[in-house]
Design a protein that fits this description.
This protein has 129 residues and is an alpha+beta fold. It contains four helices and five strands, in the order αββαβαββα. It has a five-stranded mixed β-sheet. It binds tetrahydrodeoxyuridine. InterPro entries: APOBEC/CMP_deaminase_Zn-bd (IPR016192), CMP_dCMP_dom (IPR002125), Cyt/Deoxycyt_deaminase (IPR050202), Cytidine_deaminase-like (IPR016193).
Length: 129
Amino acid sequence: MEINWDSLHKSAKEIMQKAYAPYSNFKVGVAALVDDGRVVVGCNSENASYGVGLCAECGLISSLTATGGGRLIAVVCVDGDGNFLSPCGRCRQLLFEHGGNEMLLMTPDGPKPMSYILPWAFGPEDLNK
Ligand code: THU
């Protein structure tokens, strides 16, 4: 499937503007291409109880599931300036569940596979061993 990275980047920047980040003032947006061609997005949503705030990727995964599931092919995550952002550890695990080792994440050095972003990841197959 053809990946339009510019379009994904644009979608990530657009949804980033909608982030609710009054405590950190650090807005995050994420957009992903799904294997059926649709694009899903997410932004962070913080909370007065700081520790329960949701990362942008949490919203993305919820949206993926709510709109029919599927496999993540390519992901762009951005900060408030629109620069490519490195997903936190927990969110790498969330992305891995739905994208596996082949999913591509855009980085300042170009697209990198999840096997590079989260090496030797624990995943669904480990539960069957
Ligand atoms: N954040 C994300 O949304 N995704 C990440 O991968 C890293 C961090 C959010 C959480 C919090 O709302 C803000 O960025 C500052 O940590």
